[in-house]
């Protein structure tokens, strides 16, 4: 066994277990790795940014991994503590309901783990610029929206300056929304199962390894029920709820802004959905289901959160200290039947709109109108863009802003793709949610 | 249908607090949790004067994940006193806890998480507490933080086995975690929550009369207008085309892949493409469903095994409800060659009234099957002289899940020693043969157990010896390997041996200590398995899981 290297005495007692692992090489640690004081110093001086809904677990784990300077962000003002958080977000109590998550969580962990400094920022990750992100060593996120993930991913990739190794910020991402990877879009269209026992952890080295955008099609969006089904031929209780929520509310209460946290609003949708269901002899509309549909609720439990958060923070510790190899680069987790994980290396794609240099191929129907094509981008697994604007190298096809340009390009929406584009032509798509353009090469099918 | 009172006033505050989990295990699962108290045996005393002993963080983290969703209560047994090293790994201790009872302090801080949960703590050894015969039966599950003295572990596991209380035994050492689940010898689960796609049972090859009538009443497809034609539920389309196929194929259904592909093309050829949409969604759905839905009913081998188990044949007055229902379902199967129909229908393109009508055909058949099973059960109950009747709801749930029920045959916590079961040793050896096997980490933890056991069992002899003592590790590595190979070194190949030595090095690196991340991850997994065992929903681990944090992988083993 290698001999231990001396470390500062005052901390030695408390971090006894951690320091042991950091002071000896293991069978899988790199041959060039230097255990001991240097490694421990690197750990303590690493400034870490944590973001998102797995926040309580991630904060606790980072603090007990020996990190001293932790920032938290994106548990926004709108995202205050709700009673339904208490079944898993263990830093919050009944008395904290209504307070901003980041502040309560930071104060709690600082008080419990002496010597750690936690700086909360109540707001959105999109509020911050490159200068802000540049100060961190590693970014770890447990964001619950794909949009926020894609934003941070493209921002960190955009920051990489090959001349400056410090500009490369490893991104460690965890999620529990339970999308099975390796299913193609068609297969899971009919299989909308949010089991609450699933999740994934991944490590992204911006520009060097497969990024979130490369893996986008593994996380297909929930396909929307066609509007005509909701409007005219409901069959499921969920269709009746969507009708009450999307159509009846607009007709009967268009002056009220729908608030999914307002009990009166939910009750109205529930009762309206129930009436419609009775009319069509459809059974099964319940209050719980109504809430689930209108708030897009994903089941969540403490144990799955703990597994995913801990696997991500463990990767952060390994990256910060090099004490063991980090995950390359994806671990999926499913716990309904025993304990199942699958670790694999997701591919870096040459046609990734963010980290690749080729336009991504997309098959389209040449008879489709531009307007329908734009709508379809929201659901296409490889795009998932909700408010796209687009142009070719020569001309603007459709531009949402400024209003004059919108008006000018609006007539294109009713034209067929074949009237606007050549087969195989490349288009650039922008979306207000992202800072970069997405390049697609459209092939007529 | 009037809205229920609960709906008018909105959900209760408890329903709101637990909303995200009630969607996973429903009120019945929640009730089972609230009726349960969990015992955590978090250490078995110090490892000599020079060591801080087991920190037991994985167990504490598991309790956190059980307190949050609202188990009835928990008990922590731990004679240890809080040291500085505990503060660096255990989140449920604070500076003011130093020098106090670790059981009391952890219990106090865990209780803060959920006022609905009762917490109890004992700062003494479990051996002492087991002297009270009423102590263990108060609990529905035992979690033990390893390594622990072998004699303690054996007594606990044996007592729990007699009482049919499940046990989880955990190791969390450095970057490695492993745990095993000991279930009662027979552990039935009805609500296994299989993937909804795999549960679809539509009986297209053998439609019962009402379903056949629904197809017949469709009339002529050709004479339909485009709107009607595009809204015939795909299920009825398939049934209609199957009839036609049968007529042109000497009464046979498409049976192999080639025929199914041909049948699929036949369905496709009937779709209208000259309409405005250039195709029909219901036909697309039908085409996509051919391979999956056109297959004869076959009884899964796991269900056949359950039907063949003696418990299913030799019913007594005291048989568990599960076996009475299983036996009635076996009678149903023997009569009809199918299981009761689950009765659910996937969503499909159709007009509302047509879909609801078709759904009712399935529901009615399912209800009818439940009635038949219930009649058998009532007869059995009366023959056996049972006075408490099985609830209708239980029968219904069982019938709906009949194709996916499971009986786990519990196994003891695996331990490698001279008197280990030959089957266990064989399972471990074959686990080791897999490339990059994680069974090596399981073995390293077995050696750690042996080292700790020796230090704890002979405190006078070994006082001052570290958990990382070279001599002890070498001696116990050899002893465990001898047991494992039954003295034949060739039973394990070179690369497996290298794997074991790597695992030993990684485990020794931590000198028995925990890393919080890995303990927390193990605590998450252990809590998840506890939830499955307590709710009797989903499928629990059978029986050992190893997580390797160095390589970010896990494996399951049946040891």
UniProtKB/TrEMBL annotation, chain A:
Belongs to the ubiquitin-activating E1 family. UBA3 subfamily. Signal peptide: none annotated. It comes from Penicillium angulare. GO terms for cellular component: cytoplasm; nucleus. GO terms for biological process: protein neddylation. Pathway: Protein modification; protein neddylation. The keyword Metal-binding does not apply. Keywords: ATP-binding, Ligase, Nucleotide-binding, Ubl conjugation pathway. Its EC number is 6.2.1.64. Residues 362-445 form the E2 binding domain. It catalyses: ATP + [NEDD8 protein] + [E1 NEDD8-activating enzyme]-L-cysteine = AMP + diphosphate + [E1 NEDD8-activating enzyme]-S-[NEDD8 protein]-yl-L-cysteine. GO terms for molecular function: ATP binding; NEDD8 activating enzyme activity. This is NEDD8-activating enzyme E1 catalytic subunit. Transmembrane segments: none annotated. CDD domains: Uba3_RUB. InterPro entries: E2-binding, ThiF/MoeB/HesA, ThiF_NAD_FAD-bd, Ub_act_enz_dom_a_sf, Uba3_N, Ubiquitin-activating_enz. Catalytic subunit of the dimeric E1 enzyme, which activates NEDD8.
TrEMBL record, chain B:
InterPro entries: APP-BP1, ThiF/MoeB/HesA, ThiF_NAD_FAD-bd, Ubiquitin-activating_enz. CDD domains: APPBP1_RUB (cd01493). Keywords: Ubl conjugation pathway. Residues 18-537 form the THIF-type NAD/FAD binding fold domain. It comes from the Eukaryota. One of its GO terms (biological process) is protein neddylation. Gene3D superfamilies: NAD(P)-binding Rossmann-like Domain (3.40.50.720). One of its GO terms (molecular function) is NEDD8 activating enzyme activity. Pathway: Protein modification; protein neddylation. GO terms for cellular component: cytoplasm. Belongs to the ubiquitin-activating E1 family. ULA1 subfamily. Regulatory subunit of the dimeric UBA3-ULA1 E1 enzyme. This is NEDD8-activating enzyme E1 regulatory subunit.
């Amino acid at each position: 066994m290698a001999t231990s290297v001396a470390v500062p005495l005052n901390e030695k007692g408390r971090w006894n277990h951690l320091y042991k692992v950091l002071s000896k090489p293991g069978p899988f640690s790199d041959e060039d790795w230097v255990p001991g004081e240097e490694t421990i110093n690197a750990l303590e001086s690493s400034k870490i940014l944590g973001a998102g809904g797995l926040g309580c677990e991630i904060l606790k784990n980072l603090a007990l991994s020996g990190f001293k300077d932790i920032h938290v962000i994106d548990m926004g003002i709108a995202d205050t503590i709700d009673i339904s958080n208490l079944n898993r977000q263990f830093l919050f109590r009944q008395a904290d309901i209504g307070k901003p998550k980041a502040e309560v969580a930071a104060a709690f962990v600082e008080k419990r783990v002496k010597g750690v400094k936690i700086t909360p920022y109540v707001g959105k990750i999109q509020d911050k610029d490159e200068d802000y992100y540049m100060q961190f060593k590693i970014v770890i996120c447990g964001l619950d929206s794909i949009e926020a993930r894609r934003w941070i991913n493209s921002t960190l990739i955009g920051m990489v300056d090959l001349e400056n190794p410090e500009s490369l910020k490893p991104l460690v991402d965890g999620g529990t929304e339970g999308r099975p990877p390796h299913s193609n879009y068609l297969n899971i269209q009919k299989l909308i199962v949010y089991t609450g026992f699933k999740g994934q952890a991944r490590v992204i080295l911006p520009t060097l390894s497969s990024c979130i955008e490369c893996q986008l099609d593994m996380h297909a969006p929930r396909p929307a029920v066609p509007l005509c089904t909701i409007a005219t031929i409901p069959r499921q209780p969920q269709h009746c709820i969507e009708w009450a929520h999307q159509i009846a509310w607009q007709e009967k209460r268009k002056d009220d802004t729908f608030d999914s946290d307002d009990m009166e609003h939910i009750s109205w949708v529930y009762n309206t959905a129930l009436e419609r269901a009775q009319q069509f002899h459809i059974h099964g509309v319940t209050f719980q289901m109504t809430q689930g549909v209108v708030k897009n609720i994903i089941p969540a439990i403490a144990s799955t959160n703990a597994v995913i958060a801990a696997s991500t923070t463990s990767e952060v510790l390994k990256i910060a200290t090099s004490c063991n190899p980090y995950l390359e680069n994806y671990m999926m987790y499913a716990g309904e039947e025993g304990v199942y994980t699958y670790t694999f290396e997701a591919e870096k794609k040459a046609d990734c709109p963010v980290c690749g240099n080729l336009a991504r191929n997309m098959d389209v129907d040449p008879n489709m109108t531009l307007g329908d094509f734009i709508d379809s981008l929201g659901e296409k697994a490889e795009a998932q863009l909700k408010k796209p604007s687009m142009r070719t190298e020569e001309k603007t096809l459709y531009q949402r802003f400024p209003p004059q340009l919108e008006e000018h390009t609006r007539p294109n929406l009713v034209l067929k793709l074949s009237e606007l584009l050549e087969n195989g032509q490349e288009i650039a798509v922008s979306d207000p949610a992202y800072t970069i353009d997405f390049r697609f090469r459209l092939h007529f099918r | 249908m009037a809205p229920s009172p609960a709906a008018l006033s909105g959900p209760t505050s408890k329903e709101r607090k637990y909303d995200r989990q009630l969607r996973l295990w429903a009120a019945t699962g929640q009730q089972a949790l609230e009726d349960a108290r969990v015992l955590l045996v978090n250490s078995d005393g110090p490892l000599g004067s020079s060591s801080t002993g087991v920190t037991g963080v994985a167990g504490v983290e598991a309790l956190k994940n059980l307190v949050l969703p609202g188990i009835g209560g928990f008990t922590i047994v731990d004679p240890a006193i809080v040291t500085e090293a505990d503060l660096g790994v255990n989140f449920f201790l604070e500076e003011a806890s130093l020098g106090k009872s670790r059981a009391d302090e952890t219990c106090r801080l865990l209780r803060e998480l959920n006022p609905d949960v009762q917490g109890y703590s004992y700062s003494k050894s479990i051996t002492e507490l087991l002297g009270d015969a009423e102590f263990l039966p108060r609990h529905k599950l035992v979690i033990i933080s390893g390594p622990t003295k072998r004699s303690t572990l054996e007594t606990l596991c044996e007592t729990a086995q007699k009482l049919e209380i499940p046990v989880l035994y955990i190791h969390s050492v450095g970057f490695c975690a492993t745990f095993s689940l000991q279930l009662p010898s027979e552990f039935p689960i009805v609500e296994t929550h299989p993937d909804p796609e795999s549960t679809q049972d539509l009986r297209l090859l053998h439609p019962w009369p009402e379903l056949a009538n629904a197809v017949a009443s469709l009339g002529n497809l050709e004479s339909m207008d485009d709107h009607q034609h595009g809204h015939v539920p795909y299920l009825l389309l398939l049934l209609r085309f199957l009839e036609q196929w049968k007529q042109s194929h000497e009464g046979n259904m498409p049976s192999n892949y080639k025929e199914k592909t041909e049948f699929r093309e036949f369905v496709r050829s009937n779709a209208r493409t000259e309409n405005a949409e250039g195709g029909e969604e219901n036909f697309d759905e039908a085409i996509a469903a051919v391979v999956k839905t056109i297959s004869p009913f076959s009884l899964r081998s796991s269900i056949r095994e359950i039907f063949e188990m003696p418990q299913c044949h030799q019913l007594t007055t005291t048989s568990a409800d599960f076996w009475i229902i299983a036996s009635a379902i076996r009678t149903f199967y023997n009569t009809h060659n199918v299981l009761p129909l689950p009765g659910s229908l996937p969503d499909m393109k159709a007009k509302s009234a047509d879909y609801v009508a078709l759904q009712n055909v399935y529901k009615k058949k399912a209800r009818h099957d439940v009635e038949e099973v219930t009649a058998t059960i009532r007869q059995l109950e009366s023959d056996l002289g049972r006075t408490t009747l099985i609830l209708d709801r239980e029968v219904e749930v069982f019938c709906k899940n009949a194709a996916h029920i499971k009986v786990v045959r519990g196994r003891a916590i695996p331990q490698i020693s001279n008197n280990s079961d030959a089957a266990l040793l064989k399972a471990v050896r074959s686990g080791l043969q897999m490339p990059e096997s994680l069974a090596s980490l399981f073995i390293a933890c077995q050696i750690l157990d042996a080292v700790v056991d020796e230090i704890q069992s002979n405190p006078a002899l070994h006082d001052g010896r570290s958990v990382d003592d070279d001599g002890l590790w070498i001696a116990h590595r050899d002893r465990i390997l001898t047991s494992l190979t039954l003295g034949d070194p060739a039973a394990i190949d070179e690369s497996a041996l290298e794997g074991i030595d790597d695992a030993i090095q990684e485990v020794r690196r931590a000198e028995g200590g925990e890393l919080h991340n890995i303990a927390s991850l193990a605590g998450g997994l252990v809590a998840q398995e506890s939830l499955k065992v307590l709710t009797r929903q989903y499928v629990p681990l059978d029986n050992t899981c190893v997580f390797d944090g160095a390589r970010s992988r896990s494996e399951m083993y049946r040891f």
